[in-house]
Amino acid sequence: SRRHKLYREELNLTSPAAPVPLRPEASWLQFHLGISRDGLYPRSSPTVNRLLRDMQEFPTISADYSQDEKALLGACDCSQIVKPSGVHLKLVLRFQDFGKAMFKPMRQKREEETPEDFFYFVDFQRHNAEIAAFHLDRILDFRRVPPTVGRRINVTREILEVTKNEVLQSVFFVSPASNVCFFAKCPYMCKTEYAVCGNPHLLEGSLSAFLPSLNLAPRLSIPNPWIRSYSFDGKEEWEVNPLYCNTVREIYPYSNGNRLLNIVDMAIFDFLIGNMDRHHYEMFTKFGDDGFLLHLDNARGFGRHSHDETSILAPLSQCCVIKRTTLLRLQLLAEPDYRLSDVMRESLLQDPLAPVLTEPHLLALDRRLQLILEAVRKCTDTYGEAAVVADDTTLPQVPASDRAKLDT
């Protein structure tokens, strides 16, 4: 605390700062303004590349715990928290131009696989999985993962010396190897043995751009119909009933519209990255029941390249529906000239922490893609292509009254 106080006095940070004007061209603002019912950003968005660069280069001006950790400590309104966890450390870093990003530090080396005996709900969270998930989401043309980039953070200068949170300051320490470390402050599994450490100060991690605040852009958090049992021995109905989708189809909003098709998209994405932890999904309320699903919190992906968890594909295999645009993109990425592993490898080279994924993880994407296409073939053989492939390639007709309003 004394060191922190001296640091702020040295930089003349004790006096109230003058109001900072909001620059309309700021990348964070432009990213928020670009969100539409089609996705978090347009296909060819120069703003995203600028935002990634800003998150990589801008100095941090403050650091704090996320709302999840604050909820666990009773220091915020828990009604707005989706799922308090606290098991895995994450911090909110702020930058100039009102920029804000979620920092998840490195907890597992790239070449390490998740042990076979680990349950999905106690798995590590991997910073490189967050980065790779963003790139894959963009390649699949979903555009439902917030822009994410890797960065090496000086934990002393860019976290400890800029935070105003005394609890966060108190969890920093120097390890026997003279590395600066810190850990989460929460009711369970948050001790020095679960700390993350710099080398001696630098620590790599992922930075994911924040979405607009809930006041500006309200979101719903909805349980996934294919949620897993978060116990050691229990099973959910979908895991034992192959006709489970018939029940889901009778429930609004899965009975009509695009919601079920969006769930299948999410399952395909999760199967490719190996994420079994999708217990909830979020949506912007502004876009109604047919809005896209946000693919948030992907850090438990890319854990085991040697295992394909086909149960993640249950929404596809049980419901036997898929969007035509999704199927066409998957078929393209299975072609030798556009192989998914090659496209991912090239895309990930743009990240400062490249190589983000090891070669076995990249090759696993090709193998899993073939399993998805095989599941679609089984469905079409059984029910016919017309019943399985939903045509979403045609733009919906805008009513004449709405066109008049738009023209005005």
TrEMBL record:
GO terms for cellular component: Golgi apparatus. Mn(2+) binds at D297. Its main location: Golgi. Residues 172-388 form the FAM20 C-terminal domain. It is found in: Golgi apparatus. Pfam families: Fam20C (PF06702). ATP binds at K104, S208, A209, F210, L211, E282, D297. The active site is at D277. One of its GO terms (molecular function) is kinase activity. This is FA20A Pseudokinase. The gene is Fam20a.
